[in-house]
C-alpha cells in the first residue's frame, strides 16, 4: 500500500473505513444495510478477526454487537481485556444473505481490497482468528481450527492465535468449554507479550 505521510495512521484507517462503507466491489453490497469496517485504534497490538457481519452488525455498522459479540465481550473481560485495546473486524465487511458462509470470490475481493490494508496499517503483534473462515483465510486452505486452536501459529512472519467462533460456542457446549480454555491461554500469553 502507498503510505500517505500527510495522514496519521488513525486518519488512514478512517479513510479505509470510508472506502469500505462505499464499496460495491462484490455482490454482497447489494443486500447490506451497513458495511462494517471494524473498530479499534490504529495502535492496537491485537486484531480479532471474525467471518462477516450478522444481522445486528448489518443494522448498526459495528462489529460483534449481536449475541456472538456479547459472548466475545465476556471472554475478553474474563482475561481483563477490553475492546479499547483491540481492533475487531471481519474477513468480509458486508453481511452475506441469510448469514451464509462468505464465498471464495467474496473473501478474495474483500480481503485484498480492505483487510490486508487494515492489517498493514495496524501492524499488530497478534491476530486472533475466530473460527474456520478466518483461519483458512489467513493460514491457508488446509488449516483447521480443530488442529490449531489454543496455540500460537507463526505464518509468514505474523503471529496468530486460533480459536473457535463465539457463535459456535452459543450452540455447542463442548465449543464453549474449548473457547474458554483457549481464551485462558490467550490471556496468559498477553501477560507476557514479549513472548510473542
Ligand atoms: N460474526 C462474525 O463473524 N462477525 C461479526 O461481526 C458478528 C458475528
From TrEMBL:
Keywords: 4Fe-4S, DNA damage, DNA repair, Glycosidase, Hydrolase, Iron, Iron-sulfur, Metal-binding. This is Type-4 uracil-DNA glycosylase. Residues 37-184 form the Uracil-DNA glycosylase-like domain. The keyword Ribonucleoprotein does not apply. Belongs to the uracil-DNA glycosylase (UDG) superfamily. Type 4 (UDGa) family. Pfam families: UDG. It catalyses: Hydrolyzes single-stranded DNA or mismatched double-stranded DNA and polynucleotides, releasing free uracil. NCBIfam families: UDG_fam4. InterPro entries: UDG_Type-4/5, Ura-DNA_glyco_family4, Uracil-DNA_glycosylase-like, Uracil-DNA_glycosylase-like_sf. Its EC number is 3.2.2.27. It comes from Methylocaldum szegediense. GO terms for molecular function: uracil DNA N-glycosylase activity. The keyword Membrane does not apply.
Amino acid at each position: 500500500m502507498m503510505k500517505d505521510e500527510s495522514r496519521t495512521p488513525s486518519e488512514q484507517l478512517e479513510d479505509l473505513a470510508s472506502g469500505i462503507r462505499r464499496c460495491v466491489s462484490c455482490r454482497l453490497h447489494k443486500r447490506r444495510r451497513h458495511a462494517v469496517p471494524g473498530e479499534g485504534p490504529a495502535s492496537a497490538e491485537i486484531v480479532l478477526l471474525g467471518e462477516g457481519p450478522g444481522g445486528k452488525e448489518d443494522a448498526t455498522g459495528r462489529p460483534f454487537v449481536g449475541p456472538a459479540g456479547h459472548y466475545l465481550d465476556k471472554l475478553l473481560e474474563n482475561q481483563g481485556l477490553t475492546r479499547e485495546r483491540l481492533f475487531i473486524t471481519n474477513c468480509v465487511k458486508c453481511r452475506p444473505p441469510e448469514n451464509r458462509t462468505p464465498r471464495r470470490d467474496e473473501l478474495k475481493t474483500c480481503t485484498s481490497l480492505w483487510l490486508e490494508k487494515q492489517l498493514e496499517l495496524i501492524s499488530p503483534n497478534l491476530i486472533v482468528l475466530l473460527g474456520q473462515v478466518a483461519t483458512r483465510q489467513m493460514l491457508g486452505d488446509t488449516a483447521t481450527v480443530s488442529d490449531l486452536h489454543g496455540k500460537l501459529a507463526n505464518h509468514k512472519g505474523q503471529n496468530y492465535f486460533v480459536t473457535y467462533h463465539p457463535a459456535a460456542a452459543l450452540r455447542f457446549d463442548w465449543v464453549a468449554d474449548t473457547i474458554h480454555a483457549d481464551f485462558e491461554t490467550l490471556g496468559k500469553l498477553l501477560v507476557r507479550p514479549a513472548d510473542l
